[in-house]
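REQUEST
  id: r-88c1
  op: predict_structure
  target: HPr-rel-A system PqqD family peptide chaperone
  payload:
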Amino acid sequence: MEYPAWQTPPFSRIELREYDTEVVVLDTGSGNTLALDPIAAAVLSWLSQGPQNHDRLMAQISHSFDIPADDSLRSYLESLLDSLQQQNLIQPTSE
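RESPONSE
  id: r-88c1
  status: 200
  body:
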């Protein structure tokens, strides 16, 4: 299966604030907030630095959180990316 690369929208105004075991995302443009687990927060942070493809995100998560890059992680990542897209926090790249 081929996956798109992802990025934060070009003019997004996202702030990440860490509290104990979760991170709160504040979209200063819309005023929306969302609580994220540490992996989701890391993915959003990486995407805010530039476009990333699915395989690169899998590798970064596996390395950073010392978890296997298996079907379970792939399923989690697909669900996470879908959720972040529904919240208008990320979008597929136009490449």
